Amino acid sequence: MAELAALEDRKIRLANQRHGDDHGVNLGRLRDLAKRLKTQHELARRLWTTGDSAARLLAILICRPKAFERGELDAMLRAARSPKVQDWLVNYVVNKSPHAEQLRVAWSADPDPAVASAGWALTTERVIRNPDGLDLAALLEAIEANMKAAPPRLQWAMNECLGQIGIEHAEHRDRVIDIGERLGVLKDYPTPPGCTSPFVPIWVGEMVRRQAARAGG
User: Fold this and answer.
1) pTM to 2 decimal places
2) In a 10 Å sphere around its CB, with 0-12 CB exposed, 13-18 middle and 19+ buried, how is residue 84 labelled?
């Protein structure tokens, strides 16, 4: 904890606070510390119990994902109110857990939008890597019905799922683009030069264009 405190940078904390995160540690230096510590699951558990976001990010990097029980992961997600901690927990731990599919289904239907956003993030991962068994048409119906009015964090997660369905599954692409056009979610999102807009019709079109260019090259 003393070493993490020494990594604290006020400018980084202020920048992170604008995105709802409450830590001031450079993530590159945090990863360097994790590489030095290597996997230490019990230390990871102790770091998590501190409640400190930087400590929890470090815990995620040095834990053994498959060592957590389903109930532990559920409790950890609900305690991870920082978006960065939640994102890392889902991507680096839950995705590698044997409980990922059960949690995906349970979390997607949770009334807490932060928890539901984690469920949608896991669904997006399946859309990309393991779509067999997913009812993509039903997912599109749910997105069409609920994304427009969803809270920002959940809306972003659903928008990512919508976009990836359009990118990865050509048979649903026209419907994905139509839903994106009609809902207009993130249409006016400020996008830096050189980056792709998260507005689904633009995003899907650009990713498909790049795929075609790579295939042609």
Assistant:
1) 0.90
2) buried
CA-based nearest residue to 20, from 84, 111, 92, 112: 84
Q: What is the pLDDT along the chain (217 residues), one digit of tens a residue?
A: 888 888 888 888 787 777 777 777 888 899 999 999 999 999 999 999 999 999 999 999 999 999 999 999 999 999 997 899 999 999 999 999 999 999 999 999 999 999 999 999 999 999 999 999 999 999 999 999 999 999 999 999 999 999 999 999 999 999 999 999 999 999 999 998 989 999 999 999 999 999 999 887 5
The answer to whether 54 and 88 have CB atoms below 8 angstroms apart is: no
Contact 119, 107 (CB under 8 A): yes
Determine the Cα–Cα distance for residues 50 and 165; give it in Å rounded to an integer.
38
